[in-house]
Write a structure and sequence with these properties.
The chain is of the alpha+beta class and about 375 residues long. It is about 35% helix and about 20% strand. The chain has ten helices and 13 strands. The strands form two sheets. It has an eight-stranded mixed sheet. Strands 7-8-9-10-13 form a five-stranded mixed sheet, with helices on one face. Strand 3, helix 4 and strand 4 form a beta-alpha-beta unit. The longest helix has 17 residues.
Amino acid sequence: MPEQLNRRELLLAGATAGLAAAAPKALFGQAPAVRTSSGFRPVVVSSANGNVFKNGGDMTGVQKAFTLMTQGSDVLDALVAGVNILELDPTEDSVGYGGLPNAEGVVQLDSCCMHGPRKQAGGVAALEGIRTPSLIAKAVLEQTDHHLLVGKGAQEFAHNLGWKIEDDLNTEHSRQLWLEWKRRTDPNHYLDPKQRSEAGFQAALQMASEGLLRREHLWGTINCDGVNAKGEVCGVTTTSGLAWKIPGRVGDSPILGAGLYVDGAVGAAGSTGRGEANLYNLSSFLIVEEMRRGAHPKDAGMTALKRIAANTVEKRLRTENGQPNFDLNFYILNRQGEYAGVSIYPGHYAVCTESGPQTLATEPLYEKR
């Protein structure tokens, strides 16, 4: 894809400048490896947007999660509180309230969470009317014998627990972007499926190149994983999914082993990017299994990326030189507090340690698109 359409760079350009001014030595360097007497180093790792949005407060998502976790909160409770900041922020149009809607203009949200010590998980998919799907995923974990509720059933479950169902989660911004996309892609109402798909994707890329939206938000998500000083590992992923998707489409984010996988004895991995590529490879599960065999988080992530590249054989998904024409990113930590961010192409991820929140460069599989 053209360099000017690098969606992650568009997202981080403004935020990086502000962070650099506040903490120039912390931005793109690895934090020192300081461990507790137990041998476990507390850390929270997430997608880059976890260190960008504050929803009018004074903390980003990773900072909030790390603060609560190190003050004694349950790790999953802390991580969910961190991603709630993004879910509720109307300027973060890839997660929660104001997330880019589906092809019919309806915001449908997905989320899952896993609790390593308790060996429990919960998720929701195609959930409408609730701004914080991560809290409903957590309720599925805590109050049911199931792992995943979807659509109307997930909404009714939330309503029965006392959650207010809103008629519309669009903001004026997300609605206007949908209307602009609709105008560009469907002027004659219907095209054949191939033409419609290509028209929709090209219109979205053009809107990104014109600065109407951040390109990463076409696939936007936040994954956030953490380990505390006791070695307790948890994770959460939440998203509004692929922008202008077919109604009912569910990507990797709420699927255990794809958008998130946690083993309390090993570590955690989660993802953002092209969900279909991740689903095909169940990459988060693969990464955790590689760490179980002794691999460092970075090496485990690179193994998954290489498998994804090898399994990308459809011509429409490959560049002229045979590389994937999409991006996929993994955020990884092990129980000892070692962590990594890896991606198909260069990007960034967020981390918070005792040194504070940082935005770091990912380890890419390919240096150039």
